[in-house]
Amino acid sequence: MIDQKNRMKKLVLALVFCTTTLVSYSQNTRITDPNTIGWYAFTANIKLNNTWSLNSEFQWRRDNLIAAPMQNLLRTGINFTVNPKFSVRAGYALAETYNYGDIPLNSLGKQFTEHRSWQMVNLSDKIRNFELSHRFMLEQRWIGRYSNALSEKEEQFVYSNRFRYLFRLQIPLKGNTIGNNTPYAAIYDELFVGFGKNVNENVFDQNRLGILLGYRFSPKVRIEGGYLNQIVQLSREVNGNNVFQNNKGILLSTIFNF
Question: What is the pLDDT of residue 107?
Fold first, then answer.
């Protein structure tokens, strides 16, 4: 009985030691690069009939709130509405990413282009005053890569895959539903996971948290803005350390429905 107690004590001490060592190691092998960001988005939805619609979105993403370029993103797609709670969408996106922050996304510190095809499933529901939505998204990405620092353009585009899941919750601040001339509050969180043979360090790619206030003027126009927190893991190490961007700032969006 005493031997069993001694063995248990040794096991607990070993587990505590291993856990402490792993936590200490993970903290010592992580570099954090904080940035202050501002994302400004314009979205237009064009309804063709009760089933089909077109979608276009442009995001002007900036570092130092607005002073320096971070990324320009253009996304277009076609949407098929199965029923009011279930829709699917597919399309193409073009992203131009700039050199920002203390540690750039690519090792050469160069601006690079990315092409994407993507597919999305959106589920929505309402519980009392709360409107909920789940968005599942697959992206096929072709990311520009330079062979050396003297190259003026990307010599190749490296293929990778990414899965995204977004959960959003919103509630009217007046009345029981978000109708015309209604303010509302919203919160969302989106997780990005990379997969496939060309994924390096960033299997966990990034996470985005948004806390927003919005106003719906009519079925055709609404605006929303608030706080955005983005955590991004770089796909490469720097001096043997994993690098995480901790980007905090604001998000402003204008949404039109035609």
Answer: 87
Q: How many angstroms separate the Cα of 211 from the Cα of each of 158, 224, 226, 245?
A: 34, 10, 6, 19
CATH number at residue 56: 2.40.160
Burial 75-106 (b: 16+ CB within 10 A, else e): bebebebeeeeebebebebebebbbbbebbbb
Task: Let me know if residue 172 belongs to a domain.
Answer: yes
**pLDDT tens digits for range 228-245:** 999 999 999 998 899 999
The Cα–Cα gap between 210 and 249 comes to 10
In this structure, are residues 198 and 177 in contact, taking their beta carbons and an 8 Å threshold?
Answer: no
- Residues 52, 58: Cα–Cα separation, whole Å: 21
Q: Is 87 helix (H, G, I), strand (E, B) or coil?
A: strand
Domain span holding position 106: 35-257
Between residues 14 and 110, which one has the greater pLDDT?
Answer: 110
Q: What is the pLDDT of residue 18?
A: 47
Q: Is the pLDDT of residue 2 over 70?
A: no
From the CB of residue 194, how many other CB atoms can be counted at a distance below 10 Å? 21
For residue 110, being part of any structural domain is answered with yes
Query: Residue 158's closest CA among 197, 206, 205, 117?
Result: 197
Average pLDDT for the chain: 91
Count of structural domains, the chain? 1
Question: Can you give the pTM of this predicted structure?
Answer: 0.87
Q: Are 257 and 81 in contact (CB under 8 A)?
A: no
Residue 203: enclosing H or E segment and its boundaries?
Answer: none
Q: Is residue 4 part of a domain?
A: no
In a domain? residue 136 = yes
